[in-house]
Each structure stands twice: as structure tokens, then as C-alpha cells.
Amino acid sequence: MVKICCIGAGYVGGPTMAVIALKCPEIEVAVVDISVPRINAWNSDQLPIFEPGLDEVVKQCRGKNLFFSTDVEKHVSEADIVFVSVNTPTKTCGLGAGKAADLTYWESAARMIADVSKSSKIVVEKSTVPVKTAEAIEKILTHNSKGISFQILSNPEFLAEGTAIINLLNPDRVLIGGRETLKGKEAIQMLEDVYAHWVPKDRIICTNLWSAELSKLAANAFLAQRISSVNAMSALCEATGADITQVSYAVGKDARIGPKFLNASVGFGGSCFQKDILNLVYICECNGLPVVANYWKQVIKLNDYQKTRFVNQVVSSMFNTVADKKITVLGFAFKKDTGDTRESPAIDVCKGLLGDKAQLSIYDPQVSEDQIKRDLSMSKFDWDHPAHLQPPSPIAIEKVRVVRDAYEATKDAHALCILTEWEEFRTLDYKRIYENMQKPAFVFDGRNIVNVKRLRKIGFIVYSIGKPLDAWHHGKPE
Ligand SMILES: NC(=O)c1ccc[n+]([C@@H]2O[C@H](COP(=O)([O-])OP(=O)(O)OC[C@H]3O[C@@H](n4cnc5c(N)ncnc54)[C@H](O)[C@@H]3O)[C@@H](O)[C@H]2O)c1
Which of 134, 270, 281, 388 would give a disulfide with 152, using CB separation of 3.0 to 4.6 Å? Predict the structure, then answer.
């Protein structure tokens, strides 16, 4: 029986291994992590991450051929294939600080694999890593191997949170990179055989190691660039009276461009886009390509600009001061259908409003009070380290209240900011909300989900990203 072990039971390790276990009943899959609470949660009814469809998959396989454990060494030593899906944060100090990937967790996982292995293994990079990481990992493994042979493969993960299970069951492609030697090809074949249980052959792409590593960074850079491009246009729309929804639709109708990922918003978030682009920028700089580095850097700068622009719009519309005004924040997760808040634009928007002394009342259907307060008090990049290394949760943040209901959150508020596109925010009773708010009542829609005409009719002053502004936002109240 083939045994698979995955180091790192996070947003990637958990769902990907659950789907492999579901589709390959004859393979035993163990997911291991150093975090005891995380593993306990995977073994309970309250999984550590919210992901539509995940519960069902886990329930079908757990205890049969899918196991979650903190006994990292035992499962690694028994495995034929070891996936490494640990976090790869941005370095916060030293060489490459603020850009380069911090491979501390990866390197310690590699050293542990070398220490405990008694038989040959395929080691698979599942984490997103800089190009040429496999070379470094190969060195660590072979120099500590006691004669055991290791083959390194790169198999980056392309799932999107919120749709992870659908993406894993029906991937656009599976990418496997390996050495172009006989042993390398055999290893690629072995991993290909795993995916071939449910993925059509023509969607499994085999490349050399460096192409696979770079393709992941490139794909995230292209995706983020699309969002920054449409957000750049949204600023021009507001200045000219064009409507970004109409512009996106017209642009996306070109088959070469396509309609997806063209929604203007308050900015992209999530654990990957910024981190991976910074990493790409750093690699370009190290390879003497400053023009290429600056090109990609601009994608992040534009994203930061969009968040700042949103905060400025809120403050300037509200007579240039939000001090002690109650502002409701609807949505804190970085997108709908996930409880993940890593790099969520809501964090920067809230920090910006707090900087102007606003009182915040925050509601998100999936994010806990503890998580929101942690996010608002954490330094940049701290979030991407295992929980036990993060600062303890603060008791309270002055001026922030987290509530469990949108109506309670909006009561007596001066303004509401929609920062996540949760479906339930489309269908709220805005008339009821308006009646319970201070006047003038403002709506700042950072996701373009409300019906602007209808809300204006109710009496709201509405700002929507990239839409024609009403007279108010030009500083000329009607
Ligand atoms: N989240 C996504 O949507 C996504 C998508 C594609 C790729 N990725 C990449 O996948 C990697 C993992 O991302 P994630 O979102 O799952 O991160 P995560 O933080 O949710 O999970 C990583 C886990 O690894 C564990 N860990 C760290 N060091 C360990 C060690 N030495 N031994 C055992 N466990 C260890 C941590 O405790 C944590 O639970 C990152 O490189 C990320 O860039 C993420």
C-alpha cells in the first residue's frame, strides 16, 4: 500500500489531502502538523477551516484512509511520498526583509525528513516557494541522507479558497515538475499515477523543476495584476463618469481577455498574492532584472493605493472627519465563503479608519472576534507564522466592537462599509438599516454588490468603486 504523508495541516494541506484520500481509497494519507489545536480540530466536528464541501469529504475518509496526527516523525518515516505544505512567510528581518520568502519552516521540515527517513522517498513541494528552492532542499536532504535516495518534485497548488473542494475535484491543471533524470521521471510518474485516479491525463502537466516552481509565482502575479488593472481603471472611471462594471464587461467580451477576475473592489487580499509577488520581485532583483521587478512591484502598489483611496473617500465624504463616528464594517474575510482573513483588505481599511479615530462596529458571518482583534493588532507579516509563535490575543482594542448580526452592527451608525462580498449583504433590509442609522447615512460599497439606485432612493448617500459619483462625493451636497 502506498503511503502519503503531508507536513502542514493548513488551508492547503488539509483539503488537498482529503481529496486525495477520497479519490484514492487504496492509498493511506496522513496529515501531520506541529500545532496540537489544529490537529485536534481536524479530528473533531469543528474543522479548523471553513470551506464549502470540506466537511463531507473529511467525514467520508477520516479514520479509514485519512488520518490527522501530531506524530510528525512516525508518519514521515513510514511514507513513500512526503508532501510539504508548511507556511512560507515573507521575511521580516535580515537579507531580503519585506520581500524574500522565509524558508525557515521549509528547511526545518526538510532536515526532519532527512533525520527520520529509513527508506527512499519522494519529497513534494506543495508550498509556494522561490524558484530553485528544490535545489536547496535537495542539498539538505542528500547531505543528511545516510545513503537514502530522495527525489524532489514541485507540485504547486492552484486551489482558490472558498472553492477549494470544487477546484481540487476538477482542477484546470495539475502541475508536476521534476528532474529530467531516469529517477526523476519515475518519481513524476508515481505522482502522476496518484492524480490520474480522477484528473484527465491532458490536464496533468509535467515540466522541469524550475518551470513548475516559477509557474505558480507567475500564475498568482498574473491574477493579481488583473485585479490591479481593473482597480486602476476604477479610479479613472470615477474621475470621468465611466462605469467600471460596463467597462469590465466590454473589455472581458474580448475572447483574448475573457470575463473572469475583472471585478473592481477595495483591493485583493489572501495569504498568497502579495507574498508571492514580493517573492517574485526579490528573485528578479537578485537576478539583475530591476525593470521586471519594478513592473510587478507596481501591482502591489496599486493594491495599496486602492485601499488608501477607499479610506480617503470615506473620510472626505463625511466632512473630513470620522472621529468618534460609528462606522459599521460588513465583512472582514478577504473574500466570501471563507473565514480566512490573511492580508484581507478589511484590515488596512479598518486600521486607516481607526487612524482617523473612528468607532468601528464589525460583523462578518465567519470570522471570530478573537481573530479580528488579533488581525488589527498584529504587525505586518506576523500572521504567516504558526499560531504558537504569534502574539497572544489582545484583551480589547479601544474603539472596535465585534457583533454577530448586521442589523445590530448598523444601529446608530453614521456609515457602513461593505468590505467582503458575502451573499447575505446583497439581501439585507436596507430600508430598516437606513431608519436606524444617523443621518446623513452613508454606504461605501467596496465590492459593488448593492443596488445603488435603490439605496439612493431610500435616502443613502452611496459610494461604489468605479461608479459615477453622486454630487456629494465631489464635495457638493445635493
Ligand atoms: N491558502 C491558499 O489558498 C494557498 C494556495 C496555494 C498555495 N498556498 C501555499 O501553500 C503553503 C501553505 O499555505 P496554507 O495556507 O496551507 O498555510 P497554513 O498556515 O494554513 O498551514 C501551514 C501549516 O504548516 C504547519 N507547520 C509549519 N512548520 C511545520 C513543521 N516543521 N512541521 C509540521 N507542521 C508545520 C503550521 O503549523 C500550519 O498549520 C504556503 O506556501 C502557501 O503560499 C496557499
Answer: 134
